[in-house]
Amino acid sequence: MNTLSLAACAVLAVFLIGQLVRRVIISRSGRNVTPENVKCIAPYPVQPIKGRERYRVMMDMRKLDMENWLTIDKYYMDEHRVRSKLLEKEKSKVLQCLPESYEGCMEMLEEVVEFLCRQFPNVFECRKHGNETTVYNRMTGETFVFGTDNDQIGPLEIAVRLTMEDLSVLMKNSDGEYYLAASASLFPVGWTVEERIGWTISKLHDPVPLWHQQVASSVSKFLGRLTPASPMERSNYFIEVRRPNEELLETLYRPNGLVEEGMDLSPRDIIIRRERQTFRRLPRSDTIAFGVKTFLTTLDELPLEELKNLEKEIKSWPDFVGEYKGKAVWGAKALEFCKERTKMLGCEKVEV
Ligand code: HEM
């Protein structure tokens, strides 16, 4: 190859890399999301399963990716239909606000509306007249007005009718402990806000094995020290099974827990349910805004590396942890699938 063709190749390579980088930037930038192309927007990348050798309850906090505090993706409309139905039929189970949380809920709504209109200007439009704000959602055709003397819908409800995230407001009680003062938890696992509103973070986690021994005091320190300038995020995963042909609402809204006994499971019925949890201190109300985005991946969609990591983690759980996580229902099938897939893909690699 002569110098000229080498130079041409280099220019082409630089051009192609540039195009690739541009594409990644465009696909991640909310500014390019429109009601028409939202069906093509991939979800925010979830944290991969790490494959820890020893089980521990972890805080595993990282700095919040503030540009993506709230996210919009191709599942927006499907999940929005589920959220609307739950708010219509099961409102008291999924939404509760104690009276003292009003200021925090209003500040949360203002933050949500400001964020969505700034990050997704082709989707959400916001107008202000004095104290009154109108927000228009071009995807659903809905309009919400707030800041008037007779608001029709409460602030937290408006906020979760706009977002894909569940939202809660945490406040400090007279003992200095944080508690759930308001919550719109439409996609809960094994609980409802109707029964747990007002509970402290510590009491909420009573059923979680090793919570009090391993993490309770770090969590309470973390919440106390959170400032408006230090927003954080963490991830969690659960394993869930679904019945064949189950509706999305039943998969996402799990007030009675994750597991169903006595089913003949296929890998498509075993779901890795991941949550991205965000924590922001709201400066005016001095409350904490807690957000939870739920992502569903079936076992057969997991990349090989993560499947191996999942297998490693499941095997590391002590029996009482496995019991809490419902391993008796899905464990044998999931481990069998991990083993077969690893063997199959391992062999393919050798053949190539
Ligand atoms: C630093 C913060 C937090 C950490 C480290 C944390 C960690 C955890 C963990 C490890 C579990 C068990 C998941 C599993 O293994 O299946 C869990 C469950 C749960 N968390 Fe959190 N969490 C945090 C914040 C919160 C907050 C702010 C809420 C408020 C709504 C919350 C509500 C719950 C509930 C209701 C459960 C289910 C408990 C049950 O089984 O009944 N968590 N959390």
Please specify the SSE layout and strand pairing.
Blueprint: H1 3-28, E1 62-63, H2 76-89, H3 91-94, E2 95-97, H4 102-119, E3 124-129, E4 132-137, E5 142-146, H5 155-162, E6 166-172, E7 178-184, H6 193-196, H7 201-204, H8 211-214, H9 216-225, E8 232-241, H10 248-252, E9 270-282, E10 287-298, H11 304-316, H12 319-324, H13 327-351
Antiparallel strand pairs: 1-8, 2-7, 3-4, 4-5, 6-7, 6-10, 8-9, 9-10
Helix pairs in contact: 2-5, 4-5, 11-13
The chain binds protoporphyrin IX containing FE.
Residues 57, 59, 168, 170, 180, 190-191, 201, 204-205, 207-208, 215, 219, 222, 236, 238, 290, 325 line the site of protoporphyrin IX containing FE (HEM).
Give an overview of the whole structure:
The strands form 2 sheets. Strands 1-8-9-10-6-7-2 form a 7-stranded antiparallel sheet. A 3-stranded antiparallel sheet has the order 3-4-5, with helices on one face. It is globular, with a radius of gyration of 23 Å. It has a domain at 61-235 and 278-287. The protein has 352 residues and is an alpha+beta fold. It is built from 13 helices and 10 strands. It has helices at residues 3-28, 76-89, 91-94, 102-119, 155-162, 193-196, 201-204, 211-214, 216-225, 248-252, 304-316, 319-324, 327-351; strands spanning 62-63, 95-97, 124-129, 132-137, 142-146, 166-172, 178-184, 232-241, 270-282, 287-298. α2 runs antiparallel to α5. It binds protoporphyrin IX containing FE (HEM). Protoporphyrin IX containing FE binds next to β6, α7, α9 and β8.
